[in-house]
Every structure is written in C-alpha cells, then in structure tokens.
Write a structure and sequence with these properties.
Radius of gyration: 22 Å
CATH topology of the largest domain: Rossmann fold
Bound molecules: thiamine diphosphate, magnesium ion
Structural class: alpha/beta
Order of helices and strands: HHHHEHHHEHEEEHHEHEHHHH
Largest sheet: 5 strands, parallel
Strand order of the largest sheet: 1-2-3-7-6
CATH architecture of the largest domain: 3-Layer(aba) Sandwich
Amino acid sequence: MARASIDSVGDGDGDDEALVGRVFQLVREDGTAVDEAALADVPRDLARRLFEGMVRIRVTDARMMALQRQGRSGFYGEAMGQEAAVVGSAAASEPQDWIVPALREAGVGLFRGMTLDSYLAQIFGNAADPSKGRQLPCHPCDRAHHYVVMSSCVSTQIPHAVGIAMAMKIAGDRGKVCFGFMGDGGTSEPDFHVALEFAGTSQAPCVLICQNNQWAISTPGHVQTAAASIALKGVGYGIEAIRADGNDVLAVYHAVKYAADKARRGDGPSFVELVTYRVSAHSSSDDPSRYRDESVTEIWRGTRDPIRRLETYLIGRGWLAAGERDAMAQALEAEVRDAIARQEATPPPALETLIDDVYEQPTWLLREQLAGLVAAPRARAPHQH
Ligand SMILES: Cc1ncc(C[n+]2csc(CCOP(=O)(O)OP(=O)(O)O)c2C)c(N)n1
Ligand SMILES: [Mg+2]
C-alpha cells in the first residue's frame, strides 16, 4: 500500500484542520485517475473482482426489491449507490477476520463467500436459513465466513465489534481484525461512543467503518451532527480517522486496507468515514420523496454512480470491454433468479425447530407447549393456498 497517499486526522502530523473537509480519492467522478502511483498497487484481477462484486449487489438488490413489491418477501433494504463502500471494504478483509455489519453490508458477506442461496434463504426465512426463520429479512449470517448477523437495533453491534477485537487481543490472536460497520445515524447512538471509548483505550485490532450515506431514514446529515465531519468523532477518542470517497471503490479499498494492515500489525484501531449517498429508499417500507429533494438524488444516481465510475476507469485502462458490464449483469441476474427459484421452493423450518437453541436441553414446559402446538389444527398462510 502506498501509505504516503493517505493522510489522516489524528495521525499527529499537525494538519488535522485541513483534513476535516478533505476526502481521500483515487479516481475522479469522470473515471480519470487522481493518483496513478497508488493505483498501480491494484492488479487487474482485483479491479475486475471489485467491479463484479458491485454489479452483483446492484442486480441482487433490484431483483429482491421487485420480489418484495410482488409480495413474495416481507422486507428489503437495498445498498444502491453504496456498492463501492461495501465491496471496497470487503476486499480489504482477510478470511480470518470477522465482520460485524449494519443494514447495508450483505455484499461484504457475499464478497467473502457467503452463498446467494444462504442469503436468500434468510430473506425467505425457510428451512435452509441458518437463523431458522427467526429474524427479519436482510439479517443474514455466515459462520464459515465470519459474518455476524446484523443487529436491528441501530449501533448495538459496534460494541460487539470492538469486544470481538478486544478478545482477539487478549487471546494473543495476532493478524486478525474485526470490522464493525455503521451508518451516519448510528454515530449518534450512545453505543457508538461506548464502543469508540473502548476501542481507543484498549487499542484493539478493529476497523470501524461508517457508511455516511447522508440520511438516517428521514434525518439528513446536517441535522445528525454539529461536528464538521463524522470522521472527527474518532479523533476525540484518540482513534486515527480517515475520510474517503465512498463512491470510489479503489479509494475505499486503499483506505480500509491501510486501516486493516495497521490493526493486523497490532498498531490499533481506525475509524473510517466513507462519504456516499443513499440513492434508494431507506427500505422497502419507505418513500423518500415525502421528505427530500429527489433532484439531488438524481445527481448521485447519475454522474456520481460508483459502478459507472469504475466502469469508465477500467475501460480507459483496457481492463474492461465496452458492453461487458451488460453481459456480466445478465449472467449475475440469471444466478440470482436460479437461487430465488430454489429458495422460494424450500419449505419453512419445521415447527419442531421453534424451541431449538433456547436451552441446551428444552425444559418440560417448552416440550409440553410444543407438543400442544404440533397437535393443534392450523390454517395455511394466505400465500400457501
Ligand atoms: C436503537 C434504534 N433506534 C431507531 C431505530 C429505527 N431505525 C432503523 S434504521 C434507522 C436509521 C439508521 O440510519 P443510519 O445509521 O444512517 O444507517 P442507514 O440506514 O442510512 O444505512 C433508524 C432510526 C432502530 N432500528 N434502532
Ligand atoms: Mg445513513
């Protein structure tokens, strides 16, 4: 990594004030390079994997939103426009690391190897769902790839991420990093401050990443905090803070990799603010046209789109052919459709699993209740008629 190209707030070189408003970028909106030397670190294969990872999220989200609208799934939260922040961060992680996500990081799990089938099984809450149908949709988890289930309660996961990192340090587990994600709204929660306090004082090997998409449902960024940037909040806890362009996947990768390498060496935590924009609704239950000016959204959807930016850059380098994106999107959509067909046809979890994992051995009371439930006549769910 070209360390010199990253200048951070709180690194002790005396230029913090100038950095408050500065955003680390490697590729401009028009797809031209800002820093050729730093980009030389990114091989063709990785650049193409980043591109494919972003397109996969875009295609999956679009299909799943359509399914939700058709009444075939209960709820969905897209990461549209934030794919660079998701995939760039994922690419900076190693298999031995742990991921503690918020709502929009399923793509991190997919990039690390969680299968589409497992992701969709969770959304349908079927028998193949590792959580046995007990979570709201969009709460996937994958033990094999160290991807912890997200928490519905905003920010409760950040102390968990720091706690995992503290445990790694106490256990002498060198070379591992815990990544903890949050949104801009999450940084106003008490748990955020508790977590940063412990991260700073324990110097635990964690990378805390805020996807600042400038909205927390209907609360805009300027109402969220009076601080000049979200990144600054790390500095108050003695944590090195980096602010990067969250729609520039190569800048995200570079910044998060810098932070992860540092934690891996035992040199402590970092707080990374990725500046992006939530171009879609908060979730399938939201209509942003009720509370914001969608002409601003159109700019982020258009010229600021992260996939388009990398596409232009890759075509310019000769690493992607014009038109290749469409073919890639079609192939990925076929994969998603196949996985949906499989998972929609998978039955719900057996009723008997209802009391699994509550106690090591179910109590007599639970067994009695379950027996009553199994014996009771049941109506079929409306969609099963
Ligand atoms: C403790 C708590 N308060 C409120 C909510 C309702 N809620 C769900 S998501 C959300 C906004 C989160 O915004 P942000 O952290 O910026 O993440 P984003 O949705 O933009 O990715 C709120 C208020 C909640 N889930 N938990
Ligand atoms: Mg937000």
